[in-house]
Amino acid sequence: DADVTQTPRNRITKTGKRIMLECSQTKGHDRMYWYRQDPGLGLRLIYYSFDVKDINKGEISDGYSVSRQAQAKFSLSLESAIPNQTALYFCATEPSKGAPWSTQYFGPGTRLLVL
Amino acid sequence: EDQVTQSPEALRLQEGESSSLNCSYTVSGLRGLFWYRQDPGKGPEFLFTLYSAGEEKEKERLKATLTKKESFLHITAPKPEDSATYLCAVQAYSSASKIIFGSGTRLSIRP
B49-59 pLDDT, tens per residue? Predict the structure, then answer.
């Protein structure tokens, strides 16, 4: 079984709809991250969490919110989806030992299309 | 402004033909530089972290090196299974909550 799972893997939604992307991990890591990937732009950080009670905004948090329900679960919500949020979304985890961003483990990604 | 640029965007090699990928960066105080491999339809897979100029790390046919302005990912005698997109990322001391990824180099190895 995969250590970092994301659901759904693919999602098509309409402008204005609220959607949630979920990430679960069995690695026992405290740190979790959400990124989006756009062609030609590379990965960009949306939110990150270093433990259950810690939530931090990344580079592009506007239009997104997150919830850290447990050590193993970190969800990303789009309150009112818009077409420029069409992208590939990745969740990543990392052990607490060591500097942040030193060794991240990524999930398989969620491909989101907003019409 | 902190910035990461990878070149070339795409590289096609014959099996066994060694080459290098470049990652140029501009940051105010490098905390770490990271290399990842990404296969189509999958998330990035961690390869290396480099912290200071002169540092080198190796893994199978890959070797990453770091200078004060750029990092190279050297691929020696590549095989078709090395085909992937290679991503470079940096983190600066001045923005510990921020990581900057390059747009990647798509590497294709022909048998």
Answer: 999 999 999 99
